[in-house]
Prior knowledge:
The complex is a heterodimer of chains A (76) and B (675).
Chain A: E1 2-4, E2 13-19, H1 25-30, E3 38-44, E4 51-55, E5 58-62, H2 64-67, E6 70-74
Antiparallel strand pairs in A: 1-6, 2-3, 2-6, 3-4, 4-5
Chain B: E1 6-14, H1 20-28, E2 32-36, E3 43-53, E4 56-64, H2 76-85, E5 94-100, H3 104-115, E6 120-126, H4 128-133, E7 137-138, H5 140-147, E8 150-153, H6 162-171, H7 188-194, H8 203-228, E9 229-230, H9 239-248, H10 253-272, H11 274-294, H12 299-316, H13 319-335, H14 337-351, H15 359-364, H16 369-374, H17 382-391, H18 401-411, E10 416-417, E11 421-422, H19 423-449, E12 460-461, H20 470-504, H21 510-517, H22 531-545, H23 547-554, H24 556-559, H25 566-574, H26 581-589, H27 598-607, H28 619-631, H29 636-646, H30 650-674
Parallel strand pairs in B: 1-4, 1-5, 5-6, 6-8
Antiparallel strand pairs in B: 2-3, 3-4, 7-9, 10-11
Amino acid sequence: xxxxxxxxxxxxxxxxxxxxxxxxxxxxLDMGCIPGEEVELSKTAPLGCPFAIYxxxxxxxxxxxxxxxxxxxxxx
Amino acid sequence: xxxxxxxxxxxxxxxPNSGKSTLFNAxxxxxxxxxxxxxxxxxxxxxxxxxxxxxxxxKIKVLxxxxxxxxxxxxxxxxxxxxxxxxxxxxxxxxxxxxxxTNLKRNLLLATQAIDLGLxxxxxxxxxxxxxxxxxxxxxxxxxxxxxxEIIEVDSRNKTGIxxxxxxxxxxxxxxxHFIDLNNSVSLKSKVLEQFILKDADKTAFLEWEENxxxxxxxxxxxxxxxxxxxxQKMKLKVSSQKIDRVxxxxxFGYATLLTVLFVIFQFIFYVAEYPMAWIEMLFLQIGxxxxxxxxxxxxxDLVSDGIISGVSGVMMFIPQIALLFLFIALLExxxxxxxxxxxxxxxxxxxxxxxxxxxxxLSATACAVPSIMSTRTISxxxxxxxTIFVLPLVSCSARLPxxxxxxxxxxxxxxxxxxxxxxxxxxxxLYLLGFIFTFIxxxxxxxxxxxxxxxxxxxxxxxxxxxxLKSVLLTVYNKVKVFVVDAGKIIVAISIxxxxxxxxxxxNAMEEIEKKYAHAEYPHVGVADSNYYxxxxxxxxxxxxxxxxxxxxxxxxxRPLGYxxxxxxxxxxxxxxxxxxxxxxxxxxxxxxxxxxxxxxxxLLNERDESGNIKYTIAVCCSLLIFYVFAMQCISTxxxxxxETKSWKWPAIQLVYLTTLxxxxxxxxxxxxx
Lengths: 76, 675
């Protein structure tokens, strides 16, 4: 089942399935968020935004409205 | 025989946080200069080093291009980097791509694009020692073979590998093959250049092409890294960084640490900086008086000793604050903490149109807008950066404090209200609060009004924690100070000289007239016995007769609705040099004998009566002035530094008009309501 990256819990791992069309798409690709790539939600800022994820071997921060455009499939 | 030096132009490109700037510092040391790219706000960092190979001497010019993630630009910084890299005017001989070895996958996107440009290329596996520490092993010979280009390993201290890199630059070659093949007919270079002339109608198609290109690249990169990189953990980072973050981004300890860091910076630029600032002031006063004693009287001597020296002194006085602030910023940036500070505050700041990176500029603006405007360089997004620069002068700085103190002391006795609150303290607090409220209101409005092609985003790397390198930190501080002194300094000195001239000279022989008029003892209040009083009296009369005095009188009709007369008009004009000059000018114009001493000016002002014998400095007048100084952009240094940072007069002009209007309306409203 696909869900937005912003719905992951801390420590939850997933695989990027799709990037929705958005002004952020090209930038997300630059940063290595490509379909098929594994991600893990590393932490959420205490105020609920931004998020930090592990992707492509490093940690990336992004805001909620940006993370909503990344659809992922949760790994068991 | 001395052979001619061969010149090679090298462009340094790489992702942000790849250690590119540190490498640039290691290569060029003090042989650096900061310049401008035409028409944009980005600083151009250039340097050179000399190198000899097989008895042939080389002068290798290095350009440190702004950090970029790919050749398809998404921000102004990236646009400049790519435009410069491919410029026909100053052709790049060799492109050096700096890669973070601990994070090879993402860094290879830009590197493989560079390979396909068909330029002579060298890749640098930077931070190779950190990769080893994290048990990431890279098979460099294999990588070299697969990418078809030279690769040099460099460690994070930039000790090993630098000499190899210098040699590799001289021997650089065009990569053997394209990394990926585009449609046979187009080269990547022409495709990249297409972005600069893209019509709106073609944008969607181009974006689609661009996305496919990246996905294709990453597919191949994934294969290559699976062959050449052995990494123990699949995704997770340096464990120590995770552990530190558990504290530093913690809901309680995170904010506690942030507040502590901000408090320490505040203490340093507010209080510690005062000592060196006082020394600098004393030094220049000394130089000024030495010149006065050494040379015979004359316009030229006064121009140097009063006009130029005090202008230069005014510029130099900023150095301690700028140096200290940038010392902290460089430490926070290079250690990786800046990202965490932004991570903790982005949501709050975003609500008012700012971003997580605006916290330090906002805080440092309470000391002085000048270094804080320079520190907005850390905000990578153009729109967020312009908004931050625009609102910073609304934060009450330390130069307003003497003005606030004088005016508040005219209004209130030392009285305790509500049991614990000192009335003066309360008034001061309200002024700071008012400044902040309008900072946020203005930022919010600009967020809605300002349209830029670059969308605000926060898609950024959270770099691992690193120990900053002293040399690199000090070079940053040095460059910042140099840029301020050279670029903003000349504007400040020029305007100070104009202000000095206007307040010391008047139309025709007005000054001589004053001397003559009051030379006689028939003015009964000019007590010959009290020579000090006499000097001050003459000074006041002279200021009145000067160009500034004339100007002050000319603007009187404009400022009368605010409750001001021409004397206040003069003080407002002179305080363009710096707000605290208001106090000194008031002292001169009222002939107070105590110089800048608040008590003596206070007594004079309290005794001042208007034509009908009423107290002149009423609560309405004082409040109106206070409100004026909360808002007005009464500071040439701020104007000069905004010009320098935005690279045009457009923004300081808009800012000046907006803030002056706000100050005028606010002061007028206050005066009308209170009188």
